[in-house]
Design brief:
Elements: E1 3-8, H1 12-28, E2 31-36, H2 49-56, E3 61-67, H3 80-88, E4 93-96, E5 109-113, H4 118-133, E6 137-144, H5 156-170, E7 177-182, H6 185-193, E8 200-205, H7 215-223, E9 228-232
Parallel strand pairs: 1-2, 1-3, 3-4, 5-6, 5-8, 6-7, 8-9
Antiparallel strand pairs: 4-9
Length: 245
């Protein structure tokens, strides 16, 4: 991989996108290339969505970085340009929301929610592995439901063993540690992300924003105030939890 694309405009989000793209490029030691999504007067992109998408389809693009609008001011989940890129991008995208903090230029810690399926592991492991190899910390989060929580757990020692086994089975050599929770995946991801020591969240999805789909991704788009790295599951595979189709 040799480039990160920063999709910028003249709003405050443009600066946030530049900052996040630069921080990631410094981490990977690769270049940033800016793609303008508005003209100098702030009108819609001078390039149609298909032209913007073509930038992501170049073989040497590692990922794209784009801003998502302030949902308190505009009720749409994402703008039409962002929606097109989200649903059609062949490479991972980092979505930068209106936020109080910035993506650190040095050490970064990313939260990696996994639902335990092979499909999710297959989509997320390569991306998380590249971040880890570049020096980022990776914390795995797995959320059990009342139906899936193991019945043999009786002590904190049992949880530690289970967390270690989960890391070895799903992300060998990638995860620094593993948090096991019981509850709603979206809420648990948000709670951990808001703890203050997480810089971004990584999720896999099927690139489908139609009604009834991608509920976890939709919630994170609305409520997360950290960069969200979305990884496409391009062959139609399904998962649940953090990789919600």
């Amino acid at each position: 991989m040799s480039r990160i694309l920063a999709f910028v405009d003249d709003s405050h989000l443009g600066s946030a996108v530049r900052q996040a793209a630069t921080a990631l490029a410094d981490l990977f030691d690769i270049d940033v290339e800016e793609v303008t999504v508005t003209d100098p007067a702030g009108a819609p992109s001078p390039e149609p969505e298909a032209a913007l998408l073509s930038h992501l389809e170049a073989g040497d693009v590692a990922m794209g970085v784009l801003g998502i609008r302030d949902l308190a001011a505009k009720p749409e989940l994402v703008g039409h340009v962002a929606a097109q890129l989200l649903t059609d991008s062949p490479v991972p995208l980092v979505l930068v929301p209106p936020a109080d903090g910035e993506l650190p230029a040095g050490e970064q810690r990313w939260l990696l929610p996994l639902d335990g399926s092979a499909d999710t592991d297959g989509a997320l492991l390569p991306v998380a592995g590249r971040l880890r190899d570049a020096g980022a910390g990776i914390e795995v989060l797995h959320v059990y439901s009342s139906q899936t929580v193991p019945r043999f757990i009786e002590s904190s020692g049992d949880l530690e063993v289970l967390a270690s086994e989960f890391l070895l089975r799903h992300v060998p050599g990638v995860g620094d540690d593993c948090q096991l929770r019981l509850g709603d995946p979206g809420q648990e991801i948000l709670d951990r992300a808001r703890s203050g020591d997480i810089d971004g969240v990584i999720v896999a999805w099927q690139q489908d924003l139609s009604p009834g789909r991608a509920e976890v991704v939709r919630r994170l788009l609305r409520e997360l105030r950290l960069p969200l790295l979305v990884v496409p599951m391009t062959d139609g595979r399904s998962g649940d939890g953090a990789s919600d189709g």
